[in-house]
Amino acid sequence: AILAQQRASNQESIFEGRRIKLVDGTSMTLSDTPANREAFPKTQVKNKETSFPMIRMVGLFCLKSAAMLSAVSGNFHQSENGLFVQLIDKMSPGDIIVGDRGFCGYVLICLLGQRQVDFIGRCKRKFKKTQARQRLGRYDWIVCWKRGASKAPFLSEEQSQQIPEEKQLRIVRGSIHKRGFRVVRMTLATTLL
Q1: Per-residue model confidence (pLDDT) at position 191
Q2: CB–CB of 100/24 below 8 Å?
């Protein structure tokens, strides 16, 4: 039923003929069995007697149908970003990926760009107005994001060499006002210029 729903949703465009996919990660505690302890080592805690094996998962979802398209898992010591890299082959050129702050990193955005996939996500990095190459609106800029000095641990040496030194991104800032709650200020980064 989910596959039929997915096929039907693929026939209709969501955003100018492009499919929007969501990425998110989670972790779960597993049963404390010998097989699980071997496959998923316990996390570092003071009392290892009471800790349980944990699994980390990253899933790719269709925005329109809410169907899970693909998922990867690993032990709790693997990063969500490293697992996400394994999902990039499941994306098609022209897709738009929406992710949270954990997936808004320079290396991941460049890897998606190599596959001709765009990204939209909340950004944890601080950008100053002085970094703007072009102002598009009051809180809307094109900026140049430069590559960091250290190599991402989840990339091979060959993959790391293919990452460009800089990339242009669009940064949009805004606020969410909800009565009775604090104002939430957000910074979104996207490759949709």
Answers
A1: 95
A2: yes
